[in-house]
Amino acid sequence: xxxxxxxxxxxxxxFGKFPDLGLKGLSKGAVDSALTDAxxxxxxxxxxxxxxxxxGLITGQEMICGQVVLRESEIGGIPxxxxxxxxxxxxxxxxLAWMQVQSGAxxxxxxxxxxxxxxxxxxVSLEAFSAAVDVEFVRDIIAxxxxxxxxxxxxxxxxxxxxxxxxxxxxxxxxxxxxxxYGTTQEQIAQVCVKSxxxxxxxPKAQYRNEMTLEEVLGxxxxxxxxxxxxxxxxxxxxxxxxxxxxxxxKSKGINGPGIxxxxxxxxxxxxxxxxxxxxxxxxxxYEMAGLxxxxxxxxxxxxxxxxxxxxxxxxLEFCPRGDGGKLVDEGATALGGRIPVNTSGGLCAxxxxxxxxxxxxxCEVGWQLRGExxxxxxxxxxxxxxxxxxxxxxxxxxxQAVHILVA
Amino acid sequence: xxxxxxxxxxxxxxFGKFPDLGLKGLSKGAVDSALTDAxxxxxxxxxxxxxxxxxGLITGQEMICGQVVLRESEIGGIPxxxxxxxxxxxxxxxxLAWMQVQSGAxxxxxxxxxxxxxxxxxxVSLEAFSAAVDVEFVRDIIAxxxxxxxxxxxxxxxxxxxxxxxxxxxxxxxxxxxxxxYGTTQEQIAQVCVKSxxxxxxxPKAQYRNEMTLEEVLGxxxxxxxxxxxxxxxxxxxxxxxxxxxxxxxKSKGINGPGIxxxxxxxxxxxxxxxxxxxxxxxxxxYEMAGLxxxxxxxxxxxxxxxxxxxxxxxxLEFCPRGDGGKLVDEGATALGGRIPVNTSGGLCAxxxxxxxxxxxxxCEVGWQLRGExxxxxxxxxxxxxxxxxxxxxxxxxxxQAVHILVA
Lengths: 408, 408
Known about the structure:
The structure is a homodimer. Chain A is α/β, with parallel strands linked by helices. Chain A has a single domain, classed as Thiolase/Chalcone synthase (Peroxisomal Thiolase, Chain A, domain 1, 3-Layer(aba) Sandwich). The first copy, chain A, has 15 helices and eleven strands. Chain A has a nine-stranded mixed beta sheet with strand order 3-2-4-7-1-8-11-10-9. A two-stranded antiparallel ribbon of chain A has the order 5-6. In chain A, a hairpin with a 2-residue loop joins strand 5 and strand 6 (227-228). In chain A, helix 4 crosses helix 15 and helix 8 crosses helix 12 (307-316). The longest helix of chain A is centred in the middle third of the chain and has 17 residues, at 166-182.
């Protein structure tokens, strides 16, 4: 493991709604922190990759977002790549930065995720999301879902004639299928949310730092059955940054941060393909690259755009057999002190989900866990961690799925 | 040169205004052509990088553009990266695809540039461009330019109180400085445009295929002195694609396409930096990577967003000493039969400039030149070619500059 690309610096802003901060201010907060953490000067950065998903639609700053925001941290001249992969934009950025260091092209690379998602008109924020799908295709999917949607327990139709939230409708349909097939319950989904809020309350950077009871989660307004409002990731702003260095550079500078044992990006399968969904393929490829398996993982951050998606992730990442995700919740296996604590940051539901920043923010949390710096939410003895970050929908799969495995 | 990454397949659509074609149809045209040209099946592509600049603002398809458009060519499941760098978006995509093959990570990579720029409301197209700058910063620049702008030959102010075209105003200010310092004339700029239209008339994929006389170019409507309408790249739609393969793969399959001797991306300098502009730095780094110099270049495609920018590019790329760009035009050195023919495709001014596609389209042209397939516009005996593609503005430099050097 001594030849791994190392995480030399970690930085992120608090996540939340910051009307006075734009893409520049958010980025500067995360980048300057990461550079300081690494003890690396702006002029030492050889390449930068910046992930942003909807900043262009919200702020009008498109195309050269990275060059514009990094200038605030006195970074320029070097190759700067602007990348997008919806909610997986910044894990994609990290993957490309890692590739540049891993290949020997550079010794120091910066990966940044930044998102300005809040807008004085909330409709603008919500409409921006609609670009994360093949719009024509998803219209057909939703129509099909609604035609076949199961009824609620009281017999009322589970779907609505017109979806309030396209993404949440897709997530809701997926978990309804799981509930029917495996007996997963709404209470188990709510329990994930209770856990996330508990962790969020322990994370000073989380958007929501309030504990919630099972009754509060279940009694909240319904978004799309079985999902209630706190089970869905909120809209927010934020940024996160990681400084990567080569093994040789780390040695020469005495840097001893976590190593990246695997960095994998996969896209959604073709409609005609018989292969597994991208999340499963990305996880398997990452385990293979790292020479590790799901039993080796001590702590994980997964893409809980909804609390229900976290249960599906347990299975896709092979933390438990297919269908046993709900049981994992019942056993408390993914809570603090459990076999494999998940989303100790609070996850997307409580920490927040400024979408272009979320992937790197997951890596920040796992990096801090492996450095033993998480205080009250620290997983004791965590040595190996995993992050899973999904982006967009395309037909019967996510558009993109990125999995990273870190070792202390 | 036998270990170079090879261009196995080249494909592009005709450039122009295609109201019936969206991002999907445009991409499919280029990608399917490139795969057929390479004799490579969609399932053999291991990674794809897709450059698009303003498709999101024009069509609403953001964030996962690559996944959506590549599905039309039966490509999915693999890692797909969506990248932006304004007008240099697709040369950035090519650089990343090259890096993946060069590093040994994959044997077959696809790079695509696609742009849907036309819109039934032309204002939407024009406003989309404004995202390729740091908007706040450029406002200040333009104000400063206008305060100090030289007068026209007849004494009228050269600038207007409110710029009609921010980009063209910046280009015009740059060339006015050059005219003053080095004696470059409006006739020389017009002559570049005459050359581009001559080449465009010989290129069946060009948006403008009409010859123009010097008088017609000079007599056309003024955009920002000394630039007239035909001296400025038009708005259009299009796509271009390149299939790259590793040297080993090329050998095993008997593929003998041009090799990539250099692939370089640089960003604009910081306001405080004393370094050269990105175009100069990118060219020098590319010459060094290739072990070649400007005298070795037989044919080049440069970023003539205006005909004036082509003259500046001659100097930045060291085809002639600083200040001698105008003389190069007078000598006919960059015309067919000259010492170093430039923009044989017709360049951005005549071939067209669907911005996210332009960088790869340049590489398509040079690739075809090195394969000897350019018919009436063929540069005899072309063995080494260069492309230069700039993107966006940021303060006193381009936001991004990419230079590629190809060898037959």
